[in-house]
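Ticket reopened. Same input as before:
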Amino acid sequence: MKQKGKLIKIAGWILFLFAFGFFCLQMGYLFAHERFQVEYIDNRLFYLINISCVICLSLAIFLLLTLTKKWKWIGTGVVIVFIIVNGVLLTFSNQEVKNITSISPNFKQVLSIKENIESGNAVYYRSYYGILARPQEKLPYVTDGEFQVEWLANDVAAVTYKAADNTIHQFIGTYGDRGTGRSYYYVGAEIHGRWKGNNAEVVSNTEGITVTQNGKTELFEWDNIVQFGTLAVVLMKNNEAAWTIALNENFQMHSNSAIPPSGEISLYQATMEKNKPIILQNTTSN
Amino acid sequence: MKKLVVSVASIMKIGLIIAIILYQKPTTITQLHPDQTIDEQENQESLNDAEKPKTELLQPIHIDDPITYSLQNDELNITFDKGSNWITVPVEKDQLFDGEYNGNKRELIEVSYVLTQNRAAFLYSDGMDWDNKRILLTYSLDQGKTWKESVVTKPFPAMRFRKVDFLNDKFGYVIISGGRTMSQEFSTVFLTHDGGESWEETTNSGVTRLISDGGFIDETTGFLSFGTINPEEPDLYVTQDAGNTWTEAKVNIPAEYKEIFVQAEVPVKEGGYLAVLINQGPNGDYKGGKVKGKFISKDNGKTWEFQVEVNPNETEG
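Engineering reply: fixed in the latest deploy. New output:
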């Protein structure tokens, strides 16, 4: 019996510590938010942490202290009201600002986009320490709220979205580099040559990038090619995104133009329907 | 004990309630960098929310640094007090990225500027013609109260590599490259001895490989490192007479590190000798690709001997 009492006390203190930890996290967050303009990667996290904190705290009190029936009822009431309020605010917050959060396949990067539902403005956030984020840039077109996220590599996320005027656009979040990280390079120039994959072909030359899929060939001139970071380009046609080409992790470039690059690239179609990237290999002969 | 638990718990509850109230205030996601100035976006924006204010609240780009800048609202603003007061730099944002640069325009090109307590200096170019540009330095020595513009050189082709730095109040250098065709280009070094007012070009090194870095460690000794994308051995040039002559430094790479340490960084003074880190270039895979070789020189940069392998964690602060 005594042993059991001791265990309960330990559990109580552990819960109390958890609650205190959550509390410190929230306070730290408010400070960081005010001072460094950081936000939680998903706005709803704030309420979820609040709820977790209060649940841990009340369980800790139940386990650590002997309460009279009256106080038990009051305590439970307060906790329930608190949870309901947080739940309601959480729902409202998501109606105001829609969070699009996606974790990379290797769990190292988090893509976060927050969309102001009323205005249709969406903002790309860069993540820090997994749960915090800072606004990085506004998506160039006002969206209609539909987003599709596909990770083309562990450090390249393609976000396809529809603008308010029904045109399709792609935004690429990149979190890495295939060079030294010290110098900038052009993706289009690095993939110079002929690339082939399942039913698709990409040719990058001085005119632009030509994409052939299922027998249909389209040329995208360099003026219509937008680079993101140092890992991907989006090919545009009539002010709409048509394709994204991303460098895969095994892609290696060589400055000597006689040696074609090695590794693979991904070709990903800009469409709101679910589709998978096509992997292409270099077929330029020496 | 009971009192302690109850009081801590009450403080936490009250704290959380206050937090919720505070959190309700700023659920905006609008204070942003307006960098993707694609024309269509601007058109679309002006169509969609015409009444939206055009200017945005400036946010420092490096939040921990009191002296920093912002490129919001299509202009360069600098602050010396973490963003409480902003000074607009009289340079157009596009000029700062003019030339052979297609990267992100949210942040200034690394090493293309100096921003310290005593000096703010920005290297850029202007001119419509791709082969005929002016390379300019706009600088202020009184935290932005007054600005001066000096011409580093003209005409110059569109810049690729660009670096400016000052070693003291008077002496500074600019290293620029341009006119790239495939993997060949022209690179050159300018020195100032009057704090940036006038610039003189040094003798050309004659090397046409793509420059990867360079710098001076004192008023006479400078280095240029070549080979950017797939170098096979370090290509380091040194001057010991303020750029009158450039000679290729001899880097004695032990046999086991041949074709492993291939790209020299800028040497630094260390005690009575010079030290340089030679990295593995973009395709290095020796011990994960990040380990660098530290070489030292006892003859002011002419010959270099291997000293030790350096772990990236020790070299990247």
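The two ends of chain B are 46 Å apart (CA to CA). Chain B touches chain A through 54 residues (CB under 8 Å). Please confirm and we'll close it.
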